[in-house]
Write a structure and sequence with these properties.
The N and C termini lie far apart (63 Å). Helix 14 packs parallel to helix 16, helix 15 runs antiparallel to helix 20 and helix 19 runs antiparallel to helix 23. This protein is an all-alpha fold.
């Protein structure tokens, strides 16, 4: 009897899509294609309107709207490697994701994500794609020498945010709390200085974000859903901007904060207390890497709502206070810095770029970065949202519904960033920490077309990286 029950549990979920849902699958497939097409249309409209605006008054400050990019068809060392990685993931990814042992799958996802990001970056070459990315005039490595005395640099950090006073920080240094710059300062202090080490650091750490998301989806939803999401977490167009940018590193820090809180809240870890403390510690660090990433609080809150527990909160809050306390004791004022950044933002291109355009063109940037498969998954997310919210109220959410709610939380965080007006352009890079949690929506797509959607993801990334120069 027990054997029969196990067989029924194993085979029943596989029978349903082949029988009663066949007509629904066809209808859903057409709607998925329509959603992906609508995303493509949004990109086209953003490009046409953007070119018209930029030609008329040059207020967008981008050369290939809506992306911060220039038309630059080119090939490089990664031109052979990147398509090879894509072909392997499309051909074998879905099947391997179903069969591999869980720990092997996690390692495989990290390794494949690493290969995908590295190979895309190498299309631009080792220098321009990785080693020199963080050494340009706007980047963190330009100020390493000014942090020889870290205490003095932190005490005077806010004095150099605004444009005008002598020695104002480069754009990315001024635009982030000092935790971002301090990361590269510490790398330099331990002998890993220079653009090459900085680039490798961002890619290697950033690639772990897919693993954190996979763990979270498995624990909050179920393993089957996580396995379906795995290839889409790896083979995403946003990898173009993960290599090489500090935002990829920020994404990983934020993602592991969510993953650890999930493990703590569900008790599916050896030490839930340590996981809660670690989650808080990483969230505190996240807030000192990027001001906008305070919005990761929305996915974190969703974890607690879905698990219906507040047990991790005391230790989470304790951990979250560590980094702010350290910086405050070093005489860095986060709130003052943020208000100065807002003023700096409007001193520069942020004060000229038109809000009316970027408030929707930012979403076109997102459509490119997450790819058509994610857009189709978001269509299914929107369709399932009312039922998921209703089930949440009664505590009867099924695995796909829990995934839907996580994706919705990330999308709400992204919308809040969009409406703030503090992210006008460059969001294909800046919003990576939010986009990560949109990618698993593709797990909602039916199995028969999964390889086709994966191929579409790869084509978008390869076209962007080969036809455009996406430097910043």
């Amino acid at each position: 009897m027990k054997t029969k029950d196990r067989t029924e549990q194993r085979t029943e979920p596989d029978r349903a899509p082949r029988t009663g849902h066949r007509t629904g699958h066809r209808t859903g497939h057409r709607l998925d294609l329509a959603a992906a097409g609508a995303g493509g249309l949004l990109v086209v409209v953003a490009a046409l309107v953007g070119w018209a605006v930029e030609s008329a008054d040059h207020t967008l400050y981008v050369h290939w709207p809506p992306l911060l990019a220039s038309w630059y068809p080119h090939v490089g060392p990664g031109t052979a490697a990147a398509p090879a990685v894509a072909v392997l993931v499309v051909a074998y990814g879905p099947a391997l994701a179903e069969r591999l042992r869980w720990r092997t799958l996690l390692l495989s996802c990290w390794g494949t994500s690493l290969a995908w990001v590295f190979s895309l970056a190498m299309i631009d070459g080792w220098g321009r794609g990785i080693a020199e990315r963080l050494t340009t005039k706007h980047e963190y490595l330009r100020v390493i020498g000014r942090f020889d005395d870290i205490g003095a640099a932190l005490r005077g950090f806010n004095d150099h945010i605004l444009i005008g006073p002598p020695g104002n920080w480069p754009a990315h240094v001024a635009g982030h709390p000092p935790g971002a710059t301090l990361t590269f300062v510490l790398l330099d202090h331990i002998g890993l200085g220079g653009g090459a080490w900085a680039g490798v650091w961002c890619i290697v750490t950033g690639s772990t974000a897919a693993v954190a998301a996979l763990i979270t989806v498995r624990v909050l939803a179920d393993e089957r859903t996580a396995r379906r999401a795995a290839p889409f977490l790896v083979l995403a167009p946003v990898a173009v901007w993960a290599g090489t940018s500090a935002d990829g590193y920020f994404t990983a820090v934020a993602a592991w904060s969510v993953a650890l809180l999930t493990l703590s809240a569900t008790g599916k870890v050896r030490s839930p207390a340590a996981a809660a403390l670690g989650s808080g510690l990483l969230y505190g660090l996240t807030c000192y890497l990027s001001y906008g990433l305070t919005l990761i609080a929305l996915p974190l809150l969703t974890v607690l709502v879905l698990t219906r527990t507040a047990r991790p909160l005391p230790l989470f809050v304790l951990g979250a206070l560590v980094v702010p306390a350290a910086f405050t004791l070093a005489d860095f004022n986060w709130w003052e810095a943020y208000h100065l950044l807002v003023e700096r933002y409007y001193q520069a291109a942020g004060g000229i770029r038109p809000y009316w355009y970027w408030v929707w063109a930012n979403l076109a940037c997102t459509a490119i970065a997450v790819g058509p498969a994610t857009i189709a998954g978001l269509r299914r997310t929107a369709a399932a949202a009312p039922g998921a919210v209703s089930a949440l109220r009664t505590g009867t959410t099924a695995a796909p519904q829990r995934l839907v709610l996580v994706v919705l939380a990330a999308f709400l965080a992204l919308l809040a960033a969009d409406l703030s007006g503090m992210s006008k352009a460059e969001t294909e890079r800046i919003w990576q920490p939010f986009m990560l949690w949109l990618l698993p929506a593709a797990a909602l797509l039916p199995a028969p077309g999964r390889r086709g959607w994966l191929a579409a993801q790869a084509v978008v990334a390869l076209l962007v990286n080969h036809l455009l120069w996406t430097g910043w």
